[in-house]
């Protein structure tokens, strides 16, 4: 019999930790090893006897049954009933105790099980580190983050009627609506709720949104993959709208002005918003609200990828992944205009046609030959001078091999999953340069944003790049928009439209 | 029946903390409330059933009987036989659990007892605060955490 005992102390009250752990079907919300969790039909998550079906991130399946659950003792036990991992007669216990000295929580996770002969040590380590300690770290991040989120500023979920004592701005508060994420999770967590939008303070303005951009990063915020949104919170990093009123110290904007933004902090999925005036970009006549909401974040990304991360030169060969996607399409248009030879890498004839329309001279599709072999064939063995790759795990190794000598791989996303650890020695095979830019660092001052958007608006005006809106959803249907985005059913940009005021 | 529970985290391995507190006659060495202690009838301090008689810093006199001692669980359970506190059926347990994540110890001290209803709030506060938390604070000072 193998025994595993692990324990830790979390800086959060026991009720907050128990709320996470008592959910027998909730591991996929926080445990890094669990890709999905499904309960056998008809049972509730706190029903003793319920069976959960885990699919691990490595693909293995495990079925576990809840043996006991005690809200009084903050303790639950479960057993493995079926597993691809050879853990036999496995019974585990999760137990919490309050640390009264500091309102913290002691958490122990223990189990006993048998294994095939000779695999005791390996499986003991897997359970202790891969499951229990990894779980400690994930729940710690979750509950300690929630605790700090309690002191985070607006949006404020609407109080029932009477405003709390001390509210002096009552008359000026606008009753708006926003998509509030109450906890990290799937698209179903995107729910419309009333919110109070406070009047602008010093350096702030209050906006009425007219169009809101939907980006893949919003999915990461919703699911908790990125720590940009602390529930309860409003997702969204891109919108256009009109200035309703201004706080003191905002000389560069005026009431009624059309503006847009694409930046953290999150909070764009709302009818109204109060935010720092520094983050806003005035919109020129030539750029419509919908265009701005559709293109600002992607366009700013394309701008710094092509002009700052790598200064693309005429005559260079550039390989662009997902050339029919939001950023990819703009990269193709702009790179072509800059005089580069553009090769797109995509997955279907339909997307290849879109990539060609956007300026790709050649398009690579999955085929008998590898991506790198196809790139080498198209470039007489030279390779790509620069590669823009937001696919991540599935493409990274191929991208490294498709680079020209002294080429530059710009990895700016991970749509297929984390790239994981890489030996940087492998870059020596072609003296490669690797960049992993972060939008936030290229846009963290008003000066940087002004410079990027000036070039972006000029490119839009001259039709070097064009906005293409594939889908429009009402704000209330944000969940539907996310489902379509994650289901790869969208084409070009997606925007949300706040409902007209009645 | 009244219950009191206090817990803390001590910055030392459980084995080291246990070595300090397992001596049923050793309270004066670490607990600030206890002035002197002896084991009645010359019994060894780890003999289950032995009785310790000790004097508090404020002069109070208490007799307690060791009901259970476990070097395996790092736990010690005892009952009050005689005290000026006004409690009956008082049974307390002091227990240590290793925190595997770092060389720390989760320490729990709990008690159950009967008392006059009007004395309950004050007793709960004084046992949980002065006796239990006071002991934890002393251990935290001893072990630097």
Name the CATH homologous superfamily of the largest domain in chain A. Answer: Medium-chain alcohol dehydrogenases, catalytic domain
How does the major sheet of chain A shape up? 7 strands, antiparallel
- N- and C-termini, Cα separation of chain B: 34 Å
Beta-strand fraction estimate of chain A: 25-35%
Rg of chain B to the nearest angstrom?
15 Å
CATH topology value of the largest domain in chain A? Quinone Oxidoreductase, Chain A, domain 1
Largest sheet properties of chain B: 7 strands, antiparallel
- Regions of chain B with pLDDT < 50 over 5+ consecutive residues? none
Proportion of residues in helical segments of chain A = 25-40%
Helices and strands of chain A: which structural class? alpha+beta
- Tally the beta strands of chain A: 23
Quick overview of this protein structure:
With 502 residues, chain A is of the alpha+beta class. In chain A, 27% of the residues lie in helices and 31% in strands. The longest helix of chain B has 23 residues, at 120-142.
Report what the structure shows:
The complex is a heterodimer of chains A (502) and B (145). Chain A has helices at residues 14-21, 27-30, 120-149, 216-223, 289-309, 326-337, 349-357, 371-378, 396-402, 439-442, 446-461, 478-486, and strands spanning 2-10, 34-39, 51-56, 61-70, 75-83, 88-99, 104-114, 156-157, 174-181, 190-197, 204-214, 238-246, 258-262, 272-276, 281-282, 317-321, 341-345, 362-364, 384-389, 403-411, 433-435, 469-474, 493-497. Chain A is an alpha+beta fold and 502 residues long. Chain A has three domains: 2-149, 2-Layer Sandwich (Alpha-D-Glucose-1,6-Bisphosphate, Chain A, domain 4), CATH 3.30.530; 172-295 and 447-497, Quinone Oxidoreductase, Chain A, domain 1, CATH 3.90.180.10; 314-436, NAD(P)-binding Rossmann-like Domain (Rossmann fold, 3-Layer(aba) Sandwich). In chain A, the strands form four sheets. Chain A has a seven-stranded antiparallel sheet with strand order 1-7-6-5-4-3-2. In chain A, helix 8 packs parallel to helix 9. Chain A starts with a strand and ends in a 5-residue tail after the last strand. Chain B has one domain (2-142): 2-Layer Sandwich (Alpha-D-Glucose-1,6-Bisphosphate, Chain A, domain 4). Chain B contains three helices and seven strands. Chain B has helices at 14-21, 27-30, 120-142, and strands at 2-10, 34-39, 51-56, 61-70, 75-82, 88-99, 104-114. A seven-stranded antiparallel sheet of chain B has the order 1-7-6-5-4-3-2. In chain B, a hairpin with a 5-residue loop joins strand 5 and strand 6. In chain B, 28% of the residues are buried. The model of chain B has no long low-confidence stretch (mean pLDDT 93). Chains A and B meet through strand 1, strand 6 and strand 7 of A and strand 1, strand 6, strand 7 and helix 3 of B.
């Amino acid at each position: 019999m193998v025994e595993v005992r692990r324990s830790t102390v979390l800086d959060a009250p026991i009720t907050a930790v128990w709320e996470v752990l008592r959910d027998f079907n909730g591991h996929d919300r926080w445990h890094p090893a669990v890709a999905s969790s499904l309960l056998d039909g008809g049972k509730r998550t706190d029903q003793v006897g319920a069976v959960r079906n885990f699919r691990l991130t490595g693909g293995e399946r495990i079925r576990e049954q809840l043996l006991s659950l005690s809200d009084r003792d903050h303790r639950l036990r479960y057993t493995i009933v079926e597993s691809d991992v050879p853990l036999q007669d496995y019974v585990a216990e999760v137990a919490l105790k309050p640390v009264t000295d500091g309102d913290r929580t002691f958490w122990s996770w223990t189990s006993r099980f048998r294994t095939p002969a000779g695999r005791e040590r390996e499986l003991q380590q897997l359970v202790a580190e891969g499951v229990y300690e990894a779980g400690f770290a994930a729940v710690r991040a979750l509950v300690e983050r929630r605790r700090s989120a309690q002191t985070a500023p607006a949006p404020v979920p609407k109080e029932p009627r009477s405003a709390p004592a001390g509210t002096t701005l009552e008359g000026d508060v606008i009753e708006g609506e926003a998509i509030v994420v109450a906890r990290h999770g799937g698209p179903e967590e995107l729910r419309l709720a009333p919110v109070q939008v406070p009047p602008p303070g010093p350096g702030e303005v209050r906006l009425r949104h007219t169009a809101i951009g939907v980006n893949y990063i919003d999915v990461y915020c919703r699911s908790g993959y990125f720590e940009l949104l602390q529930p309860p919170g409003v997702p969204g990093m891109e919108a256009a709208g009109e200035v309703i009123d201004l706080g003191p110290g905002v000389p560069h904007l005026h009431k009624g002005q059309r503006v847009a933004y694409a930046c953290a902090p999150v909070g764009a999925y709302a009818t109204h918003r109060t935010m720092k005036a520094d983050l806003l970009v005035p919109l020129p006549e030539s750029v419509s609200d919908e265009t701005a909401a559709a293109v600002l974040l992607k366009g700013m990304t394309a701008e710094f990828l092509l002009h700052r991360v790598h200064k693309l030169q005429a005559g260079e060969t550039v390989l662009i992944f997902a050339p029919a996607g939001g950023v990819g399409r703009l990269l193709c248009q702009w790179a072509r205009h800059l005089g580069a030879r553009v090769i797109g890498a995509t997955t279907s004839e339909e997307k290849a046609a879109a990539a060609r329309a956007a300026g790709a001279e050649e398009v690579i599709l999955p085929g008998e030959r590898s991506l790198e072999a196809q790139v080498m064939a198209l470039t007489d063995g030279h390779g790509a001078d620069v590669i823009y790759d937001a696919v991540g795990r599935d493409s990274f190794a191929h991208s490294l091999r498709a680079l020209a000598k002294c080429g530059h791989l710009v990895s700016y996303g991970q749509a297929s999953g984390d790239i994981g650890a890489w030996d940087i020695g492998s870059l020596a095979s072609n003296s490669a340069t690797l960049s992993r830019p972060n939008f936030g660092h290229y846009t963290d001052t008003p000066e940087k944003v002004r410079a990027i958007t000036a070039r972006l608006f000029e490119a839009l005006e001259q039709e070097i790049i064009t906005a293409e809106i594939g889908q429009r959803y009402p704000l209330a249907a944000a969940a539907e928009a996310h489902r379509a985005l994650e289901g790869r059913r969208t084409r070009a940009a997606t925007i949300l439209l706040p409902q007209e005021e009645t | 029946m009244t219950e009191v529970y206090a817990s803390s985290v001590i910055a030392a391995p459980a084995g080291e903390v246990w070595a300090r507190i397992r001596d049923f006659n050793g309270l004066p060495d670490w607990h600030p409330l206890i002035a002197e202690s002896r084991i009645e009838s010359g019994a060894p301090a780890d003999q289950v059933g032995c009785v310790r008689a000790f004097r508090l810093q404020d002069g109070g006199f208490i007799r307690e009987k060791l009901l259970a001692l476990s070097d395996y669980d790092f736990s010690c359970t005892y009952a009050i036989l005689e005290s000026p506190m006004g409690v009956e059926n008082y049974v307390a347990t002091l227990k240590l659990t290793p925190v595997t994540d770092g060389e720390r110890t989760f320490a729990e001290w709990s008690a159950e007892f009967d008392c006059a209803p009007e004395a309950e709030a004050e007793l709960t506060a004084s046992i949980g605060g002065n006796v239990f938390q006071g002991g934890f604070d002393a251990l935290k000072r001893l072990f630097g955490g």
